[in-house]
Amino acid sequence: MTATNPLTRLRQRRSDSVITYGVLLAGAALWLFPLITAVRASVAYGGPKNYWIVLTREFNQVSLPMTFGNSLIIAVLHVVLVCGAGSMAAYAFSKLRFPFRETLYYAVLIFLAVPGVAIIVPVYWITGQLGLFNSHLGVALPEAALTLPFAVLMLRNYANGLSDEMIEAAQLDGAGHFRIFRSIFLPLARPALVNLGALCVMWSLQDFMWPATVLKKPELTTAAQAVSTIRSAFGPTPLESSQYFAALVLLAVPAVVLVVVGLRYITEGITSGGVKE
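^ that's the sequence the OP posted. Answer follows.
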């Protein structure tokens, strides 16, 4: 076999890089096009003051700052429930030894295949029996239930990469599992928990189904719900259409900022535990 010319290999690498960046730029353009179009439409009539108008007025008894607050409360509850229960389950499945451990673990993972629509009727009934209609917790609980299997998978994979030596040393010193979990496991798992928290916030901000099912009071409307809730409050005139686009841009800002700022954490969260050293 003849050796490949180094210059030929360099040209091939450059060609591959050009193709890769070309595909990425095309994808970015497709993603940014709707956002750029919405921003242009939001200032086409009335100018930038449209943003101040939609921030300071109520539409169908809904104000945008209120929707941001509701979404934030639900997202925080979602993060607390998922990270709390997920970290305890991950510690148990990774560091404890008990009968049928692997069977129970894979049983939890089966629920990754269950779509939210498939359980909407029983969840609606359970939420009503618990008296959680028109409450932030009534939305956060179903969201957490759907996210928890993924959290167990991600955190257990991360926990499997942690050394057992410190845990064994703590047990020799007489520490119980609760003390080990609180003082050793949680500090070591902090990077994975931060990643998981960023993912939970992003998913919660984008969720429309559960808030639309559980929340009926206008003052509890979330940012995702507001996109459709406030539409009828704007007339067909060019000025009001621009104001509606301004509202859409503002409603998209939290999710866009989270993705841009937390992209590194989100990416690491998806791959966390994928490689064990």
